[in-house]
Hints:
It is built from 3 helices and 8 strands. It is of the alpha+beta class. It has one domain. Strands 1, 2, 3, 4, 5, 6, 7 and 8 form an 8-stranded antiparallel beta sheet that branches.
Amino acid sequence: MSRxxxxxxxxxxxxxxxxxxxxxxxxxxxxxxxxSAATAQTGAAFLDLGIGGRAMGMGGALSTHASGAEAIHYxxxxxxxxxxxxxxxxxxxxxxxxxHATLAGAMNLRGGLAFGLAWTHxxxxxxxxxxxxxxxxxxxxxxxxxxxxxxxxxxxxxxVLLGASLKVLSHNIDVDVHGSGESSASGRxxxxxxxxxxxxxQWRVAVGARNL
Length: 212
């Protein structure tokens, strides 16, 4: 009579524990990303264009490896992961006469504490002004947005990095039609993030939320 011998349940559970942990982390990170995306839909969509050629080449998937000036935008915790000074300058000429410009700098001289400053500017002008019937009138409309952000990053220990940033947002619409004038609005937003290194050998995890 043959007999099937199964390994103890405890050992099988231990073998699957890393996979279970990764599944839980994936679900958690997905919830954070969806929450951040829902927040971003409320305005300041120009911030979703990102900064830095490396990050754009990766489709913006830079949260776990954010460092230097790019970390101000993608995960401020990454500021504490790289020592020295970094500067990032970018300019994009987009369709329909839109432009997007960025300037950012970061400094980490003490190793455990880093800070950065970033400026982002977007313009959608000039836009033709028309009447309700579609007739083109003299003058035009200039639509500009900008954000100034200040970020701090700190190394808690060898494996944990934390960071936060404050952004001041402004939006101006200048209507140069029969002295119509200018309309403006402003606001603030906060980003928070964390990077945990070597959660599992050769794995790192990033958690964050943007535009709170």
